[in-house]
Amino acid sequence: MGKVKIGVVGLNFGSAIIAELTSKAGAKWFELAGVCDLDADKTRSYAIKYGVRAFASLDELLGDEEIRAIGLFTPPVGRAALIDRIISAGKDVITTKPFELDVEQGIGILKKAERLGRVIHLNSPSPWLPSDLQLLKQWHERYELGQPVACRAEVWCDYRERFTGTWYDDSEQCPVAPIYRIGIYLINDIVRLFGEADQVQVMHSRLFTERPTPDNAQLGIKFKNGAIGNIFASFCVDDGQAYKYALIVNYEKGTVYRNILPKRFDENGDNFESEMMLVTQTKDEPFHVERASLPGAVGQYQWEAFYRAIQGERSEQTVSAGEIIEGIKIIRAMSKAEKSGRSEKV
């Protein structure tokens, strides 16, 4: 089987995706065949740069029978409607988190995709369980760690942003901004470990941003199984450890750590490994520690999984529609909590 031809829609964030499709992980599986953006000059510029066709509209792109897949990287509001048009045209789609803010629309579009036999993949939650979460689940089973008790997760970076009048400045479209923009990966990770959420609480502040939305926030989540989670996300920290996505997960008989210690980055500022550690007790050891370094980073696009799904392959480890929707439900409740200042049911 040869490469699948793909068209990219939305060239702000989509520009980073094109780099993956032309020179990195996606190049093995896909051939960039077209680009499309509301900015016609940008569309022409990218088409010339990569030697592909420039499409004036999504409909024109969907009319190209040689292009089987679409990379959709537009702002999140209304994305489900665009996905609907894509899958209704008989094409498969890969997009970024979250693929929709409206829970009912999200459920509807996933059901329609299943009915049509079309593929919808996201970078978070990823279609295949990432290697770090796979290992965490293996440790949980092997050492009988028992009931989930709690987790703490954190991510930060250094943004000093100005008002732009875009969706980033609108709390309706970008609720609790640091959580929504960079902390959502942690929400999706925790859902795959702890399951359905019961209620949420929010705390946030504005320290350096010139946007009306916050740049410093934390989200508390109570899960239906009784476990409690906390996610801290901030645009205010410049310590050379941006996007580390640290995680501590407590079970009744052990604790798992991900990326707790400082990480080393390569010359490009990248680190695509997760540092894992388990601390527990066994019948032979009152203090048992295991460590592992695994390839992969939070939020990476799984191009091989997308390619294989387009070819009709199905995997038992593929993320469920329920797990995708659960993250959207948490975001919806978080948005309500931001407005009310109270705990909100999920």
UniProtKB/TrEMBL annotation:
Q: SUPFAM superfamilies, alphabetically?
A: Glyceraldehyde-3-phosphate dehydrogenase-like, C-terminal domain, NAD(P)-binding Rossmann-fold domains
Segments forming domain Gfo/Idh/MocA-like oxidoreductase N-terminal: 4-123
Q: Does the keyword Oxidoreductase apply?
A: yes
What are the entry keywords?
Oxidoreductase
Q: Where is the GFO/IDH/MocA-like oxidoreductase domain?
A: 134-256
- Matching InterPro entries: Gfo/Idh/MocA-like_OxRdtase_N (IPR000683), Gfo/Idh/MocA_oxidoreduct (IPR051317), GFO_IDH_MocA-like_dom (IPR055170), NAD(P)-bd_dom_sf (IPR036291)
Name any one Pfam family assigned in the record: GFO_IDH_MocA_C3
Which branch of life, at top level?
A: Bacteria
What's this protein's name? Answer: Gfo/Idh/MocA family oxidoreductase
Print the organism lineage: Bacteria, Bacillati, Bacillota, Bacilli, Bacillales
